[in-house]
Design goal:
221 residues, seven-stranded mixed sheet, two-stranded antiparallel ribbon, 6 helices, 9 strands, 31% helix, hydrolase, EC 3.4.-.-, ChyE-like, Class_I_gatase-like
Length: 221
């Protein structure tokens, strides 16, 4: 795990096993994805606590990386809008283009003007929170990456996923026009895997730099 390579101990927690009561002992928060909406509490009761932690992270400007559902939770609790099965489906390698703010950002700047990233979603952030800064978009989806404050990030794409991970994906059970086989998705992802990995690693290194700065600030208070 790249964060461990960068010198951080990672406390990996599945929501169903119980989430931390607070973030006081942490230098950063990463919230991963899943086939849920931010308020699907009937299917995932731990989401209420995850939303509470997201609010606390935003208030403290704790270095936070919300990925897919994690980014949607950040958008939701900060006053944006997330809609289920809305808009085009993005599945596999997708080009993310950075905004002017994204190119100047510590994390998204690693993408340069544009870079291929892995996606797998149809739920989408249809409106960013009022305080959010847009950092990146795809051709089909405007709200691919945003920042709240200085250190809280929401991403629709998956920097933690590489081409070989797609081999575990399932074929569409009810294919719609435009749906592609897993073999095709893997082939496309493999073709850009070197750039995708390099870019994702740079993004995580930027997040690690935010965590170091936050930890240093906390020790001097």
């Amino acid at each position: 795990m790249w964060l461990e390579e960068d010198g951080f101990a990672v406390d990996a927690v599945f929501g169903g096993n119980g989430l931390p009561e607070s973030l006081d002992d942490y230098a950063g928060l990463v919230m991963l994805g899943g086939g849920l909406m931010p308020e699907d509490d009937d299917r995932a009761p731990w989401l209420a606590q995850e939303r509470a932690l997201a609010r606390a992270a935003i208030d403290a400007d704790l270095p936070t990386l919300g990925i897919c559902l994690g980014g949607q939770i950040l958008a939701h609790v900060a006053g944006g809008e997330v809609r289920r099965s809305f808009g085009p489906k993005e599945r596999g390698s997708t080009v993310i283009r950075t905004s002017d703010a994204g190119r100047a950002d510590l994390l998204l700047g690693g993408l340069g003007d544009a870079a291929p990233m892995i996606e797998n979603h149809q739920d989408m952030i249809t409106a960013l929170p009022p305080a959010a800064v847009l950092l990146g978009s795809s051709e089909a989806i405007a709200n691919q990456a945003f920042r709240l404050g200085a250190r809280v990030y929401g991403l629709q794409f998956h920097p933690e996923v590489c081409a070989e991970d797609l081999l575990r994906w399932e074929e569409p059970t009810d294919p719609a026009p435009g749906d592609r086989s897993v073999a095709d998705l893997v082939a496309d992802a493999r073709a850009v895997d070197e750039q995708n990995t390099r870019t994702s690693r740079a993004l995580v290194a930027g997040f690690a730099a935010h965590m170091r700065a936050y930890a240093d600030e906390r020790t001097t208070r």
